[in-house]
Please model this.
Amino acid sequence: MTTQTSIPVRFMTRPSFTKLLAALVEAGYQLIGPTVRDGVVVFDHIDGARDLPRGIEDEQGRGSYRLASTAAGDKFFGFTSGPDSAKRWLFPPREVIANVRRRDGHLDFEKEPQDPQRYAFVGLRACDLRAIAIQDRVFSAGAAVNQSYVGRREKAFFIGVNCATPSANCFCASVGSGPRCTAGYDLALTELDAGFVVEVGSATGRRFLTSVRTRPATADEMSEATSVTDKTEARMQKAVTTQGLPELLYRSRDSSRWAKIAEVCLACGNCTAVCPTCFCHDIVDGVDLSGASAQRSREWASCFSLDFSRAMGTHVRGSSAARYRQWATHKFASWFEQFGESGCVGCGRCITWCPAGIDITEQLALLAREDNQDNGEVKA
Model:
């Protein structure tokens, strides 16, 4: 992705959008976009616009998700976030980083070659684009640069979509990451009945947009596009109060709230798997049965795993309560110290895909309420 450049906002019909995706494929990009599989909208390889979940919307709740048909049958992006994000492609769940082979009594160490594929991500929401920017801070800055992440990231093309409807679990507006795409995209689309209002975020995006037929967006179309996200923000049912949140979490280390959460939390790690910003991983070595070769891999890890905090023969966080507290405190407090911002983008995936239906926004609100009571303050 290249730097942003300012050009007039354009309007693109759906046939032109189909041709835009075809132009990306012709240029050597592998399209990664939303598609329906096993009753879920997932991000996966697609061949073009025909694979998008046209005429589909989703209904999400605490620990629940289902698809339904929508009256706006020709809309490509009538759904909200599914369980996948760009993380699965930019930072794969398992990635071989080195191979070792025994030859003639010697060990040959071979670094795994970088993935040559260029990915074009279609339909990323504002929260997902913000999550990519957060993972950039983790993998691209500082002394420990993840070169394979950087290689995939720098070759990627991002098409963002402004949200026309929130899920019941979205709270991106309260953490400042949506519902409108503001940065990190090559092209950003707002889907209207007649087509797309298109904003250009990079020279590469402008080049591909000029390869298909578009026209300047009218004032009415631009106004309607702004209204789409304004209405989405107004309809959000959940929020997180970020002011004073790190301090609240630090002084709540011994709160009984964590034990209450642990009564239902399964410590399954679903929330970390679907989170677009969680970056914890482990380095795993494996040897084949003959002893002739070995492989080193980088694999996703979860702070909800008991062995995640194993040190000196013991578990630092041996209870589910301690592990949930660690996850919440890191995400909403110590992340600020590490990266200067929150580790949460408000996508609500951790609520939807939690089998116990734990709602992080509700738990943070209860923590604040109990903290007020402990300090003798009047409950709002």
